[in-house]
């Protein structure tokens, strides 16, 4: 509680201040020496209670009371009077004083008056809070009703009574346009959105108010049950002459960039400005639909978040998607994914038509391309990649909100497909060479050649030769000779077969050629190898 003591006698002031502090240590006490000082202190400090003497120089207590009554500030004024001034005290009560105390003031009487004042101040504060709450609720109700009428007007469902009500508000008639704004929150900022919606709406409405009378209405606010649409959608009715927007269009783009930049840390704010019209009362719903339909084209990054309806061509060419399937598929099978990604980007940038192509068409082509890749290369991509391509074509592409984000999705998918293709080719090469090795070990006695085996597996001879050496560490002919010579050694050491018979069993029809190859491999002729091997075999049998 703040208490002002007004008295020209310093001793009385000190005594009153001491009594107040003795019973109310929390109270703030202010002292004035006469009515003039008291009036100035009252206006500056606005105390809850004023204890003022009646008889003072310059301005007495009654004059002070009269001056205070002229303003809206109404403190509780308690008059201090001597017995011989009792009539003045009664007069003060008639002029609005709260009470009076006789001098010398009794501390119990003072305490009783201050207690009553505290109770009344508490009641008055509660009543003010209630009145303010009612006023706030009334304002909210009025605003909500007003915005509901505007929404019905924009949707074309406004009743006749609603039209009359809007006319009284001054919103239903005149020249102007409708702006359809969408705020798309970032993934991390969705939980913070509810706390900033009012500020967002205020910023949008304040911006368009600089052009004329404007009212922003929230069309959609994400709730807890919204699993997909986290966007805030706002329609702003702007009463403005068409030439104003046309003349300020270039600067307006820069001004909107500044507004949008304020919200960049939370998400992406875009605006589609409807066509200007001379009579909003009749054409508002049509203007609103035009702005809303145009807003879908803000998907294209080239508009930089701001699009005027008349910037879209009324007669747009049928979009065409020019991507050579064979060239594209071949580039995906190349050494680097970059070529395929560039081909894809070029095709989609041409399809976008400088922001004039319906985003739904672009997304359909993107989904179709991934589905076609999935179907044509599915057996070579792996389960997880096929699953991701399916998710991208069904979910990610349909919900992406900009051309650049669509390109990022396609880039990632193509890079993954290219990686899978490379791994598949590597795995396939290894399987082919492993199969070739098994073939050599099983059929080394036949007339095998690099050309015949490469043809068997449908590979170019040179490419097959390189693959074979990379996998085994040996050339095809060296590996074949090694297998044949190993078998020749086993036959020479283990039985009584003739040399020509062993040569034939190892794939050689010419015995002399077999002997030369064997000597080169073992460092001795087949006969010498047999001669040296027999004692070893016999010794092994005797063990």
Care to give the gist of this entry?
The chain is an alpha/beta fold and 543 residues long. The chain folds into four domains: 2-105, Rossmann fold (3-Layer(aba) Sandwich); 173-311, Alpha-Beta Plaits; 325-422; 444-542, Homeodomain-like (Arc Repressor Mutant, subunit A), CATH 1.10.10.60. It contains 21 helices and ten strands.
Q: What is the CATH level 1 assignment of the largest domain? A: Alpha Beta
Approximately how much beta-strand content do the residues carry? 5-15%
Low-confidence stretches: 138-142, 536-543
Number of helices: 21
The shape is elongated
Enumerate the strands of the largest sheet in spatial order, edge to edge or round the barrel. Answer: 2-1-3-4-5
Termini separation comes to: 118 Å
Number of domains: 4
Average pLDDT rating? 83
Radius of gyration over all CA atoms, rounded: 48 Å
Instruction: Name the helicity range.
Output: 55-70%
Largest sheet: 5 strands, parallel
Task: Find the structural class using helix and strand composition.
Answer: alpha/beta
Modified residues (4-aspartylphosphate): 53
Domain HTH araC/xylS-type: 434-532
Domain Response regulatory: 2-118
Pfam families: HTH_18, Response_reg
